[in-house]
Automatic annotation (TrEMBL):
Keywords: ATP-binding, Lyase, NAD, NADP, Nucleotide-binding. Its EC number is 4.2.1.136. This is ADP-dependent (S)-NAD(P)H-hydrate dehydratase. It is an enzyme of class 4 (lyase). (6S)-NADPHX binds at residues 42, 105, 156, 223. The gene is nnrD. CDD domains: YXKO-related. The lineage of its organism: Bacteria, Pseudomonadati, Pseudomonadota, Betaproteobacteria, Nitrosomonadales.
Amino acid sequence: MTEPQINHPALWQSLLPQPNAVSHKYTRGYVLIQGGYPVTGAARLAAMAAARSGAGITAIAVPAIAFPIYASQLLSIVVKPYSDDSSLQALINDNRVGALLIGPGASVSDSTRLTAFSMLKTTKPVVIDADALTVFAGKPERLRKSILAPCVLTPHDGEFKTLFNLQPANVLEQRIKQAQLAAASVGCIVLLKGSQTIIADPDGRVILNQPAPPTLATAGAGDVLAGIITSLLAQEMPALEAAAAATWIHAEAARLCGVGMIADDLPELIPTILQGLMPSE
Ligand SMILES: NC(=O)C1=CN([C@@H]2O[C@H](COP(=O)(O)OP(=O)(O)OC[C@H]3O[C@@H](n4cnc5c(N)ncnc54)[C@H](OP(=O)(O)O)[C@@H]3O)[C@@H](O)[C@H]2O)[C@@H](O)CC1
Ligand SMILES: Nc1ncnc2c1ncn2[C@@H]1O[C@H](COP(=O)(O)OP(=O)(O)O)[C@@H](O)[C@H]1O
């Protein structure tokens, strides 16, 4: 097994996307998130984080019944209602979409599993988080068969245990090995969240984030992380670097906020962190 690299901007800073004079919103990356109902906050947090991380367009596909809830609180985020499976499918298959996210607030249901399969079938980068991990409980091979393009799984310990039937260890070295084996078995990046988030590539490479602020242990912080990763993927960052950069930016935003942070604070702080990572003019 490869030794872990410590997460640091030197690993990915040169790959961070930057707009230029000929950019327009579609060339800056189009993120599509499947938004759940009745749990609607999670996808909205992810969407705000994706937009603040530089995607030119961030859209949430939502069941028609939930449209007023989403649309009443979002201005820059495009809310796209769907009435049935085929209209959701059309949103997912839109050629302009650059990366997809499913899971935050999605519900543990057959419909979430089918939507995850539809997303993977597009061969666009996909981030699979939260409920979209849980729907594959104990059956990661079902995911493996469908992963055809860059894909990032973002489990917390509970989701890792449910998906892989394996309790993540407390000892760091063992956790790293577990994440590496999981990534190799499922054939995509496994980002095992925690104080020291581990980002494992199926090719054996692994990046270890230094301890993040414990204030991140708050509802919705993981949704924000998923949004940042999806945004960087839509902006054509390679998956391992996108996951590592997102994890670093997420932790720095929490550090900047300090005590009393809630997940809603994080997207607002991303621009400051990104500004500090841009080459000086
Ligand atoms: N604003 C919103 O709308 C928000 C909505 N959200 C949405 O809510 C939905 C449910 O998501 P969820 O993560 O809260 O619960 P779930 O998937 O049922 O698993 C939790 C179980 O796993 C275990 N567990 C072990 N280690 C753990 C760890 N490190 N961190 C956490 N849990 C850990 C633990 O069980 P224990 O080990 O304690 O018995 C726990 O009971 C999902 O759609 C999500 O997107 C949230 O994103 C928040 C903001
Ligand atoms: N004790 C901790 N110290 C540092 N970071 C933590 C700690 N607990 C959780 N985190 C981070 O906070 C985020 C929580 O994500 P998650 O559990 O998915 O929350 P949610 O589902 O509510 O969005 C992850 O990025 C994780 O790495």
